[in-house]
Write a structure and sequence with these properties.
about 220 residues; alpha+beta; Jelly Rolls; Arc Repressor Mutant, subunit A; 7 helices; about 45% helix; binds protoporphyrin IX containing FE
Length: about 220
C-alpha cells in the first residue's frame, strides 16, 4: 500500500512539521498482540511506523480480515475493529483532536486516509458478498462438480462440460437470481475454476481444485 515511494512517515520527518510530529508518541506491540479492540474507550489515530498490523472484525470464533496495514498507513481505534500486530510493530499514536490539525496541514494525511479506507471498504464489500452469496455459491459449485463428474468429457488435462442450460434455467435449479448466478460464474472464471467455452459449454481445468472448493 505505498504511494509512489512517499509516505506519511517521510512527510512527518520534514523540518517544518516538527511540532506536528511531536503530537505523536510511539507505542510498540509484540507479534500477535491485540493493540486495540472494539470495546475499549480510547479514541486514537495511529500511523504504522514499522511492522505489519491486521485490521479485522471478530464475532465469537469467526474473524474477517479487512486489511493489512504497513508502514506509512494510518487507521483509528474508533472504527469498531480489532487491531493486531502481525509482526513486532511500532505505531505512532495520537488523539483524534490532534489529527484535525494533521488534516489541515498535511495533504498527504487525507490522501493516505482515503487510500486506506478505500482498501478497507473494498475488503468489507468482499466479506459482505461472501456472506450474502455463500449458500448459492456452495450450491453452484456442488452442482458443477456433480455434472462434471457424471458427464464431463476428458480434454486437455481437464473436463469439458456441456450443461445444455441457459443461465436462466441454471438459476432456477439453484433457486437464485440470474444476476447472482452470472456474478458467481464470473468470479469462478476469474479464479480459474472454470473456463467459458460456449453458450452453456464449460471447461474445468482442474477437477481437484473444484472438489476442494466444494469440500471446504
Ligand atoms: C484512517 C482511518 C480514520 C481516521 C484517521 C479517522 C479520524 C477521525 C477524526 C479526526 C474524527 C473527528 C472528526 C471531527 O471531530 O471533526 C473522526 C470522527 C469519526 N470517525 Fe473516524 N477516522 C478513521 C476511520 C473511521 C472508521 C473506519 C469509522 C467507522 C467504521 C470511523 C467513524 C467515525 C465516527 C462515527 C466519527 C464521529 C465521532 C463523533 O463525532 O462522535 N472513523 N474520525
Amino acid at each position: 500500500m505505498k504511494f509512489s515511494g512517499i509516505n506519511l512517515l517521510d512527510e512527518l520527518q520534514k523540518s517544518e512539521l516538527t511540532d506536528l510530529r511531536d503530537v505523536f508518541h510511539s507505542r510498540s506491540a509484540k507479534k500477535g498482540a491485540i493493540i486495540f479492540s472494539p470495546e475499549q474507550d480510547e479514541d486514537l489515530v495511529f500511523i504504522i511506523e514499522s511492522g505489519k498490523v491486521r485490521i479485522y472484525l471478530g464475532y465469537e470464533e469467526k474473524e474477517f480480515t479487512l486489511g493489512i496495514l504497513e508502514p506509512g498507513d494510518l487507521y483509528s481505534s474508533h472504527a469498531g475493529c480489532f487491531v493486531q500486530a502481525l509482526e513486532d510493530s511500532s505505531l505512532l499514536v495520537t488523539d483524534v483532536q490532534s489529527v484535525k490539525r494533521c488534516m489541515a496541514e498535511v495533504p498527504l494525511f487525507n490522501r493516505t486516509m482515503v487510500r486506506v479506507l478505500g482498501k478497507i471498504l473494498q475488503n468489507a464489500f468482499s466479506v459482505i458478498g461472501g456472506l450474502a452469496f455463500k449458500d448459492i455459491y456452495a450450491r453452484l459449485t456442488a452442482y458443477l462438480l456433480k455434472e462434471a463428474q457424471e458427464s464431463g468429457v476428458p480434454f486437455d488435462g481437464g473436463l469439458e462440460l456441456e450443461l445444455d442450460l441457459t443461465i436462466e434455467q441454471l438459476s432456477q435449479i439453484l433457486g437464485a437470481t440470474r444476476q447472482t448466478v452470472s456474478t458467481l460464474l464470473n468470479n469462478m472464471v476469474r479464479e480459474g475454476l472454470v473456463v467459458k467455452r460456449g453458450r452453456s459449454k464449460w471447461f474445468i481445468p482442474d477437477l481437484k481444485a473444484l472438489e476442494d472448493v466444494v469440500n471446504t
